[in-house]
Design goal:
five-stranded parallel beta sheet, 298 residues, 11 helices, alpha/beta, 40% helix
Length: 298
């Protein structure tokens, strides 16, 4: 049975700890592993991508493998081929399948029929690969994960959900603050707030995301105004960051809209570790690929 990575909940605490440890080793020596030598990984992109595509392509190459990038209009899915048949075809050729798409149901169906690991590279509901990179960044910064407090402020979206799920496994106290109408459902024991100041108080890290997520419909002028007004108090600026612990760092999964969900001063300032998050996507995903993919049969 192939082992999949769809939400992050598939990992035990020990596995997550070992994965982060391995990611640190791979970051220190990026070319030290040939776990994917002479093997290919299919990467299906049905959504735009910068960080995910670059980090997966480069990471697979560093592991000695070949990243096979596929877009929807290049696949027979556009002509009515089923997800099941696509999964069966790809499984005969590649060591794993990464998918960046919209509906979670698409990824779940792909995983149901694939005989190789399926990795969720982003859906409307989850972004677990981002959460792994975030935990790696926190581990680098603080030397440990258990007992940390991470405050997410803004739209209760897929990133917030993945932080709650994976953070709980790591022993992190995850707080999520969102305005009415943008809140997330109770998930993985995360503390839910409407007041961003209350959520951020004493936190070790303060995290945000764009106000209009990739899975959201493009807002009308009226809806856009309502969204901006509702989310403006959740912007990460120096004043909000000052409410966190004195050593707190700001995090953002990107792309960022400076002046909206985060100020320019924080985005490029000394109190953020956002650009470390960018690099850590590659190292965390390499450790994940090593964990999921069975060694090749000679």
């Amino acid at each position: 049975m192939a082992r999949h990575f769809l939400t992050g909940a598939e990992l035990s605490a020990d596995e997550l700890r070992a994965l982060i440890d391995r990611a640190l080793e791979l970051k220190a020596a990026p070319m030290s592993s040939d776990a994917l030598a002479r093997r290919s990984v299919a990467l299906i992109f049905q959504k735009p991508s910068t960080r995910t595509r670059v980090s997966f392509e480069v990471g697979i190459a560093e592991l000695g493998g070949h990243p096979l990038v596929l877009r929807t209009d290049e696949l027979q899915l556009t002509r009515g081929e089923t997800v099941r048949d696509t999964a069966l075809v790809l499984s005969r050729h590649v060591a794993a399948i990464g998918i960046r798409t919209g509906p979670d149901e698409f990824v779940e169906e792909l995983a149901e029929y694939a005989t190789v690991p399926v990795i969720n590279m982003l859906t409307v509901g989850h972004h677990p690969c981002q959460a792994l990179a975030d935990l790696l960044t926190l581990r680098e910064e603080f030397g440990h994960l258990e007992g940390l407090t991470l405050a997410y402020v803004g739209d209760g979206n897929n990133v917030a959900r993945s932080l709650a799920i994976v953070g709980a496994i790591a022993g992190i106290d995850v707080r999520i603050a969102s305005p009415s109408g943008f809140e997330i459902e109770p998930v993985a024991g995360a503390e839910l707030f409407t007041d961003p100041a209350e959520a951020v108080a004493g936190a070790d890290a303060v995290y945000t995301d764009v106000w209009v997520s990739m899975g959201d419909a493009a807002p009308s002028a009226g809806d856009d105004s309502i969204r901006r007004t509702a989310l403006a108090p959740y912007r990460i600026d120096d004043a909000l960051l000052d409410l966190a612990a004195s050593h707190a760092v700001a995090l953002h999964c990107l792309p960022a809209h400076a002046g909206e969900e985060i100020t320019t001063e924080v985005l490029y300032g000394e109190r953020q570790r956002i650009w470390d998050q960018v690099e850590n996507r590659r190292h965390a995903q390499k450790a994940l690929l090593e964990l999921l993919i069975e060694p090749a049969v000679e």
